[in-house]
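Entry 14. Structure prediction run on the chain below.
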Amino acid sequence: MQIGVPKEIKDNEFRVAMIPAVVGALKGSGHHVMIETGAGLGSGFSDEEYLQAGAEIVEDCKLLWDRAEMVVKVKEPIKEEYGFLKDGILLFTFLHLAGNRRLLDELLRSGGTAVAYETIETDDGQLPILTPMSEIAGRLSVQVGAHHMMKQNGGAGVLLGGVPGVEPGRVTIIGGGVVGLNAAKMAVGLGADVTIINRGHERLRYLDDVFQGRVHTLHSNSLNIAKATSECDLLIGAVHLAGAKTQKLVTREMVANMKKGSVIVDVSIDQGGCVETIIQTSHSKPTYDIDGVIHYGVANMPGSVPHTSTIALANATFPYIMEIAEQGFNNAVKSISSLKRGVNIRMGQVTHPMVAASAGKECAPLRF
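Output returned:
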């Protein structure tokens, strides 16, 4: 199979979709991998390393897209890449189409096939490709929040861990999944006073057990959210439902009642965000202020630690890439149920039920 890996061009996105070790494995199985020149530099991988692994280095991005049967990326195509989308191509990347109607329409127009990392789901509900990025984003959310809580960065000047004689900062995490769990690990490690809000009682019981009483756990309802957000110094949005647009759980009124100089980091922004006042930002301009509250809405947070996140992502995507290359798309999807759930767009139709519902479109069965 002809596989293309273009350089990511989203704002300050330094990850690359494939590491040299994966290239070597694919090459050893008889597949041809094209890497756009410089694609791996931001993650610490040189063109020479890819060449030694057996890749072809391609300088012309359009040529790479034209020749590839499967294009493997990290982030969704942006406006400058829409012209590369075409019938017959298989796109394998993060898409988050519930929050990006323009890209959805472009993919439908192209007639190609789009498989989203974030909706690849195992029979027991695990998200094997999204999970490592969620772990990273959850841990980063506390680092980012602590940074913007500093006075010179616009925050109230609260130290999350406090010091003897001074109470620690308060962190409220909405969502107790992978992002929320990892955010809590970091916040607890820094000595913060942490509250996790989640809708499932069994998950709250699990979190209470994991943290041995070092975090407060609350059921998700508007009263608990309103109280916890009004008292916290750092609010982390960690709500996720595979393929679906995120419900707005934190209202504009709740934001207005938050402390001046407090910080919101909404990790769920790539699916629309769980805070009513959040909009997507970039690493170049990560924050803005509403009612004296700092809002951080960067959708590609793991892109700021590309070496770590590239390796973690490549480890997760490799088994699927190899199966598609070896079996062909149709056979791979028929034999791997988790991969089948990852297919969002096929032959000009939406094939994932949650994406279809978010877009107000009919969900079509997969056609081969």
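The CA atoms of residues 251 and 276 lie 5 Å apart.
Filed with the rest of this week's runs.
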